[in-house]
Design goal:
This protein is mainly α. The protein has one domain. It contains 6 helices and no strands. Helix 2 runs antiparallel to helix 4, helix 2 runs parallel beside helix 5 and helix 5 packs antiparallel against helix 6. The chain is elongated and about 85 Å long. The N and C termini lie far apart (about 70 Å).
């Protein structure tokens, strides 16, 4: 297990003061944000399975495992399991989000990475599990959202203002 020396923490983990040797190398905060976004997507998947009355995915899975079970208790039990999985996935999402914030110098970057990961993983899971069709228009909109988030979170390199007009004194 990795032992953290808190006196030399700035040398052990990448940050704004200790950048990674490669520009595009993921930092621990990036990895934690991606994991948090994935758990957020899994929580939404479990919630969709829980409330979906047409599909009854969880109930069908239990039927396949245990054979013929009373329908009322099967639906109630499968929904309880999905509700508990929503709670667990949300708890893990917040855990990894706070870990990512701890190792990052920018909360905007962590939020950006987590939201984009959640968006992409939700699209993939929705397409795979529920058969959702992702059109070119959807991908174009998702790309615009990602570009917008990137522009918002990009560092602002503003030139210092040197010519500030001075107020005239009336003496």
């Amino acid at each position: 297990m990795l032992e953290v020396n808190y006196d030399k923490q700035h040398q052990q983990f990448y940050s704004a003061n200790n950048p990674p040797p490669f520009t595009f190398a993921p930092t621990p905060s990036d990895v934690f944000a991606v994991i948090g976004g994935t758990f957020a997507a899994l929580a939404s998947l479990c919630a969709k399975i829980m409330v979906d009355t047409k599909m009854d995915t969880a109930a069908q899975l239990v039927r396949d495992l245990f054979g013929d079970v009373d329908s009322y208790y099967l639906n109630l039990g499968s929904r309880a399991v999905m509700l508990s999985l929503v709670a667990v996935c949300n708890g893990l999402m917040w855990l990894f989000f706070t870990k990512a914030l701890r190792f990052s110098s920018s909360s905007t970057r962590v939020t950006l990475i987590q939201i984009i990961t959640n968006f992409i993983v939700t699209a993939i899971l929705g397409s795979y599990v529920f058969g959702d069709v992702l059109s070119v228009q959807w991908w174009f909109g998702a790309s615009l959202i990602a570009v917008g988030f990137t522009v918002i979170s990009s560092p602002k390199d503003a030139a210092p203002v040197t010519d500030v007009p001075q107020a005239k004194k009336n003496n």
